[in-house]
Every structure is written in structure tokens, then in C-alpha cells.
User: Fold this.
Amino acid sequence: MKKLLISFLSVLIVTSLHGQNVRDELVFGSTKSESRHDFVGVRTESYIGGMQSTARRMLPPVEDHWEGGTMSFRMKVDPIHQNYFTVRCFGSESDKNLTMLFIEGMQVGYRHLGDIDYVTLGNGNAPLLGRFYYVTLPLPLKYTKGKSVVQLELRSYGPMWGYGSTFERYQQPMTKPTIGFYKAYTHIESYLAPGRKEVQGKTPVYKVRAATTEDSFVALKSRVNRDMSVLLNKDVLSQLEMWTLAEASTVSWTNAFENDQVVPLIAASIDAYYERFVDNPTFIYQDNTVYNTDWLQVGPIARAIRLLWDKWGDQLTEERINKWTDLLQAGLDYSIHHRRQYTNQSMIIDLFMYDVNKAVMLLEPTKAYPEYTMLRYLHESVGLAPWSGILDAFPLGTDYWQLTAKGLTKELGYVGYYGEVLDWVNDIYRSTCVTGIPNSGDLQIREQLLKMMEARSYFRHPGVDHEGNAVMRIEAVVGWRDGGHYPGDVAYCDRGTAWDATPLMTAANTLDPRAVGMVQQMIREEQFFPMIREKLTVGGMRGTRSLIHIPDEYDRIMKQPVRTFRMPMTLDGPDVVFSDEENGVVAIKNGDEILYASLYWRARNAVNNLAKVHFITPQTEHVSNVCIRTIIDDSGMRYTRPNWVNLGFNGSREWYKGIQSAHAGEVLPIARIPDGVRYKQGDENIFAGKALFYEMRYGRYLIGMNHSSDQTYTLTVPTKEYTILNGNPSETEVSSKEVQVLPMSTIVIVLETD
Assistant:
């Protein structure tokens, strides 16, 4: 990558040295420091933690309850500028609790998927073995303006399950202590540079795990065959069981292969399902044996019909054909009228809709939609055509695409786990293949799959597993729909431990050299078989079905020549800048530093001037909510933040009575909504919160991102010397102090500061 060192005479020195930007520092567990800050703890304890440093943690309640201990203290702030609050935590500690920040008795941020986050939400994993990390939140200006000291508080709560439909399912009791909090800081720059005397821990060695063996395949095959034996002994199967058994019957090492029981059992099961449908037509989207039944409807049955098509023989009587066709047509009609906007949901619905129509085409061709109609829906869901919504209504306009031009999903901005849709796109591609003939599917979908794979590869960063071995992890910190996923799952090419995924599927289905190179890196780093062992812990038919093809995929990969391609963020590789202006996200590798930033950050209802940053260095990591500068096409409409404290995007689960939001009443501008897009002021909309230009300063990094299609914006550089990590000076028309950012482009600058 070309780097440019540029100097100019006029200079504004901006430093990030610890102590010059810090307004106050509290050492938890230090009697002297806590006393100086009027510390009051309720159900807390101090202890000596990581690197022999003092810390304090909050304890669970005595009785069965969801509220735990609290820590209250006073800290100095700047009366004029934007202030930030940062806590220092030790990465070898873990919990499953939630910790929220309060200012003057008001809750800062939201508990679930808000644009201003919680302090910590544990998932039981230690995020950074042997090292410290920092979490930063902005303090609302209205509580610091004109003040030199504010009252702050940390409150602890039990684990949360974001899908819980009742308070009891959503909010779990707190039964164990929180992780320890070592220090708290208030500061006025978005990046808190650790003090030079702060010991951060040991830089990881990134050692390769000791060699593993193929013994995991013994357990895998045993699990699959055991489950198939159970299914073969049943009288009637559920939809997922039919699909799984049909899938297993195509694989030679399973006990379902060429088994005479398979076809009559699945035929009888479809008949039984049809009878339930006749008694209750809503059963096709209310079948509680199927996950997200209103998305899949009768898709698993259609998949079983397709997989066994050359084996049905005399089972396909005219009566059966008529009944099954009626059933499938009902499912098809439902799904056509219930398409969804979010990319992963659109893909799943359209995939099974396509499968159902293909099954109808086999059973009774005159009653099926033309192939091109259903293929168009698949193309829409994978970003090859504008998304038309339900019955070509185009609710987001005629130019809304489910993927960005660079291959990331839009939900509404960058998403981590929910953006890991390579498994579904692999399934979509396979569904367009001729049964039994690999690589015979739609070529456009195949190419889009590979583009998506490449885009996701930038969002894998180096780390270590729980034993200190080298891994690549998914970047989920800066994801819109990701909560409590720090650190991210181990993943290379595919998110192989997900329900419906395998670690090898993209490489095995395409044999693309880049995909093969990624999984070869995974195998060299001895992370493949640990993933298989983890997948074996996933129960149910989804877990079993995802295991069926792994041994054959592995054999296919092991026969490939060695590829030189490695994951882009591999530490000893070249520097990298990947930006996606449509999603407002950037991934940067600069030497041994990695920075991810979502500049269009959870701005669902209006422009919020907020970004989320994950900054990774050999010594430490930072997880930060920061304030940024934007330029917008102002609609003139405004959005006032409601007094919500739970969900950051709607008020449907405001169960935490008596808690008030520190952000209630804040007025935000709404960007112009394109003509032809249905919109009601205040509603969630992908356009309402999107800016034309984003500017973020974080430590020595300065980023300018231009999302406009026809405007050039100026990025003013505040230091005498700086390095442009990407771009060409002739293209950006660099002058001494100003850098031009062209339409739909991003400039990343590293400031040279002392």
C-alpha cells in the first residue's frame, strides 16, 4: 500500500498523551483515591487482580433478584467541551452480567442495541487474555455543561436474553459478581491514551495450537448416525427432521444412505403435515417445531422433495401430487406476501420460497411460477437487483439494494454476526444447482458469494483463544445488531460454528483460491478441529444437519494445492484499508495496529453524530463510543429522543420502571429521505440517519468518509506531519493542510504526534 508523508508550515499540535487530555482518574480499590472521589459502594468488594493491581467488583444480591451492587463517585469534568468516561478492565476476567453508567442519577446509554452502549455486557468469555482493555462512553453535554464535577455511578444487573418476550425471560437474576473495574477516567478527547506507567500485560505470542487429529470426525459421524437412527425409528417426522434425513440420505457414510426406510417415511410425514394443514391452514407459518416458521413456512418439506426427487418412484401417486402441490402453493403464497427488509431475513425467506416453487415445478409444472420470477427474488436478496419488497411495492425506493456495492449486508449499517450470511448464500447458490451436479448453479450468485466472502475477510482480526493459541476472530464490536459479543467468535472464511454453517462451505462449494487459502490458514493454525468439537455441542436438527457434509468438504479441501492467499488482517501481512461508504464502516491495519470504526452507527431515526470504534494494539484494546462531525442533507425534520432506557430502537420493552434516560429530550436532525420512499417522521429508516460526510478523530487516526455521490469534501489535518494510508495525492488533490475526499471514497490519515 502506498503511503504519503506530507508536511506544511502552519501547524496546530494536537496531542493524545495521557495526562494532558485526562480530567480525572479514580483507582478502584485504593482507599486514598476512592475517598478523594467520595466513593460509595453498595454490595461491592475490592481485591488484587490482574498484574497485581487493585480493583473493585460488584456483587450479586442476597436474594434472587436481577439488580446487583453499585459504585457511586464524583469526578471532574470540563465545563465546556465534550467529556468522555472510560473504565479499565482486565481481559482475563469474565462474567455474564450487564453494567450501566449513570450520571446525576440518569442512565447513560441503552441496555440493548442502542447508539450509546452499556459499559460492559459479558458473555462468559475472557476477551483479552493477560492484558487490560478500555471501554469509553460519551457523557451527555447537558449534564456537564458549566460544571467542573459530576456524580457518576456504575450499576450492575444480571444477564439479559435479547429475544425474551417477557421480563422474566429477558432479564435474568444476577447470581455472580461482575468483572473487576480497575480505574475510571474522565477526559475530553475520544481516545484515552494509556499512561506510560500503566502496565498493560504481556503481548501475545500467537503460538500455533499443538497438532490435532481427525478423531473429531469419529464423534461427528457417530452423532449424525445416532440421530438418523432415531429418526428412522419414528412414525412421523417434523419438517426439520424430514429435511435432515433427506440430506443425510445423499451422503455415502451415513446410515441413511440408500436406506429403504427413508422415502416411505418422509412421504408419510408429508402426508401427516398436509392433514394438519387442512385442519388448520395457518399451521404452515405457526409450526412450532420449525425455527422462524413464518420465514421457512413449508421450505424444509420442499427441500426434502427436491433431494429425493429421483427416488420417489411409485410413492408419487396422483393423489399425493395434488395434496403436496396444494400444501406447497399455500406456503408459496404466504411467503410472497411476507418478505422482509433486513438482509438475512430476506435471504432466508426468498431461499425457501425458491425451494418451494422448484418443488411445485417438479410436482405440477403448470402451477409453478416461472423460474426467472423466483430467481429474481434470489437476486434481490443477495444484492444483484434492487429490492422490490412485497408485490413489487419498492417500499425503500427503486434503487435500494440489500448489499453494498462492496459486498456487505445492510441492516441498516455494518453488522457482525447477523452479517455473517455466507452460509445462507452458499445454500442459495446450491439451491440453484442441478441436484447432484456441484457448481452448476447461477453464476451471478456464485460471483456475489465470492465478493461477499472477500468483504467479510477484512472483518476477521488476529487474536488468541482461551488457551492462548493464534486465531482469527469476527469483528462484532462495531456491528449494529451485535450485543455482548466481545470477543467475537473464531472464524476464518465462514462463521463455521453457526447453526447452519460449516467452517469450509464457501471454499468447498466454489474451490475459489482465496477461499481455499483462508481455510488452509485455519487448518495450519490448528483451529479447524476445535471448531468441529464446538459444533458438536450444538443440539437439535439444525446442529445435526450442519455436520453432515463436513467430512466430504474436508476431503475436497485437502486435495487442493497450497494457496498463498491469507486473511487480510494477518499481522505480518501488508497494511490494509477497507472502507464501505454505503455502510459507513472502515477496517484499517497499520503495522501492528488494527482499527475498526462504524461511522454510520445505529442511527436508525436521525443523524446522531456518533461512531463505534474497536482499536486493537499488541498491548491493549479499546472499545469506544465517540462523537464525530458530520455534514448532512438536512430534511428540516427533527427527532426527539424518547425516555427509553432498554431497547435503543423502540419503546416496546420499557420494563425498568423508575430509571430515566440521560438522553431523553435530545433533538436530532433527520436527513433527507429520497423521493418515492415511504416515510413517517420518527420511524426507523435507513436514510434518516445517514450523513453525506463523516469525520472522525481517534488518537492519531483521522478519517474522512464521503458517502455522497457527487460532492467533494475537505478534511482539515491538524498536525504538521502526517501519513495518508490510502489514496493517491493526484486523485485527492492534497494541499498543505487540506485533503480532498472524493465522492464515495474514504481517506485514512495517521497523524505524527510526539
